[in-house]
Amino acid sequence: MTVDAVLFDLDDTLYPYDPCNEAGRRAAFETYRDRGGGLDADAFEARRARARAATKREVPATASSHNRHIYYARVVADLPGPFDAGLARALGDAYWDAYLDEMRPFDDALDTLATLREANVDVAVVTNLTTRVQLRKLARLGVDRHLDALVTSEEVGREKPAAPVFTTALARLDRTPSEALVVGNSPRNDIEGGNALGMETALFNGPADATGGAGGDPAGLRTPDHRLDSLAAVTEVAL
Questions:
Q1: Over the stretch 69-126, which tens digit does the pLDDT of each residue have?
Q2: Which of the residues 9, 42, 61, 94 could staple to 31 if both were Cys, CB 3.0 to 4.6 A apart?
Q3: Which listed residue (11, 12, 122, 217) is catalytic?
Q4: Quick one: 49 and 144 in the same domain?
């Protein structure tokens, strides 16, 4: 197929997520201990996990459900004594600073984006999270110079696989669904969301069984139109 636009997911699609998340969590705990906190690593992590789960339960399918400052504010609120806003902010800042320091694009990510742009294919990132954080990631990765558009779930008020994340990107690029390819790692968010609008989809860095199971994606989803072993293979599909 030949397309006029490619819509990329960001997290775990253009760079590996897990090393960054681990670095961020370590940095938040170290900051907590440096400021006199008495919990050990396991107890601190248990409180963070509970705060994350409670946030996702109370504000599901929103950009706020991913907000690390909210997670750590809830952790701090559960500590003895008065609420320490400075500590809550320091933990969230430490998480994101270490996360960004750890970020590296997949080896072929930047070359793939550059090749698409050189072929006059529009390139956008469509992502679930807050705009400020995702802008920082794009700048850190050096991805921004290869993009025509960024759409976050925060700005449209819905999360993938909801249609507005994708349709907003298509509108900004002045493209129709039949002209676009969606590339992402999530069968639920990227593949199901893209296929529902009639776009071609390509699964990269996702579960081997794209009908569900891994990564919290349930069974019964539509399978991707393409499965990619590398981001460089995007050009073989798109051009």
A1: 999 999 999 999 999 999 999 999 999 999 999 999 999 999 999 999 999 999 999 9
A2: 94
A3: 11
A4: no
User: pTM of the full predicted structure?
Assistant: 0.93
The CATH number covering residue 221 comes to 3.40.50.1000
Q: Is 9 a catalytic residue?
A: yes
Q: Report pLDDT digits (tens) over 147-194.
A: 999 999 999 999 999 999 999 999 999 999 999 999 999 999 999 999
Per the residue annotation, which of 9, 12, 190, 217 is the catalytic one? 9
Give me the residues paired with residue 202 across strands.
Answer: 183, 226
Looking at the structure of the chain, the number of domains it has is: 2
83 and 142 belong to one structural domain:
no
**209 among known catalytic residues:** no
